[in-house]
Amino acid sequence: MDEQQHPLGHGEFPFEFRPRPVDEQLQQDNWRAVDEAIRQQEETPVRRLPWLRASLAAASLLLVVAGIWYMATRPGTPLMAMEKTSYGEVKTILLPDSSVVTLNGNSSLRMLQQWGPGDNREVWLDGEAYFQVQKQHAARTGFVVHTSQVDVEVLGTRFNVNTRRQQSIVSLEEGKVRLSVHGEVSLVNKDSAIVMRPGQTVVVDASSGPKVNEDRNVTAHSGWTKNEFHFDNTSLAEIARLMEDTYGYKMTVSDTSLWKLSISGDLRASNIQELIKVLEVTLKTTMRIDRDRKTIYVTRP
Length: 301
Description:
With 301 residues, this protein is α+β, with helices and mostly antiparallel strands. The chain has 2 domains: 80-219, Jelly Rolls, CATH 2.60.120; 227-299, Phage tail protein beta-alpha-beta fold (3-Layer(bab) Sandwich). The protein has helices spanning 24-43, 50-73, 236-247, 272-283, and strands at 80-84, 91-94, 100-103, 108-112, 121-126, 128-132, 143-146, 150-154, 158-162, 167-174, 177-181, 194-196, 200-205, 208-214, 228-235, 250-253, 262-268, 286-290, 295-299. A hairpin with a 3-residue loop joins β7 and β8 (150-154). The longest helix has 24 residues, at 50-73. It is extended, with a radius of gyration of 38 Å.
C-alpha cells in the first residue's frame, strides 16, 4: 500500500487487536498455578549464613559498649558513687578530700567519684550520718550536705544529720555550719540562713519552721557511732520509731498504755538483741523478737 493512502495518525497502529474470549476453566487453572508459586516462595526458609549471624551479634555488642563509653565520658556527665547500709549496719566512708563519714543503718550517701581542684564538695544524704569534715583547702570550695529538707554548708567541723520521718535534725559538735531550709532560704541568700554554733541542734519538719535548741549534751545525737544510746525521758513509742528506722523491726504492744513507759540514761548495745535485753530489764517488760515477721512483741511480765 502507499503511505499516502494509509497514513499513521497519533495513537493509530497498522494493525489491530481483536478480542477473543478466554475459556473460564483455563482462567481458573492459570490463577491456581500463580497462587501455588507464590505460596511456595513464602514457605521457602531463608538460610542465614553462620558468619553473618556472628557478625551481626558482634556489631550489636560494639554499639552497646560504644554507647556506654560515650555516656560515661561525654562532658557534663559526672560519674556518681553511692554508699548504702542495710538495717543495723554502720559503715565508715573516706571521702575524696579525706573527710570521714559514718553512715548509720538504713541510710545512703551519694557523691561524685572524684573531686578535682575547684570542684564543689557535695554529698546527698538519705537517713543518718556523722560527718568529720576536713578544713577547707585553698584549692577547694566549701563542703555541702544536701538532704530532702535542708542544705548544710560546712567549714571544717563535726556534726550529725538525721533526715528520717520527714524531719531533719542537725546537731553541731564543733566548728561552724550554715543551714539553709528548702523553700525558705537558699545557699545563695546566705543572709537568711541559720549559722549554727557548737552545742546547738536545729530541728526542721514539714509542719513548722526551724527550731534552734541549745543542747547541753549535743554529742548524744552521734552516740550511735560508738554503739551508745542516750535517752532523756524517752517514751517506748519513740524507741519503737528508732527500732524501725535503724533495724527495720516494728514494735507492737499487748497494752497501749505500754507506749507511755519512758526511760532516761545512757545505754550501750552493739546490736538489736543487746538493746532489747537492756530495755526489757529497764522498762520491766517482756520483749520477744520475731525475725520472720520483723516484729518485736512487748508485753507485761
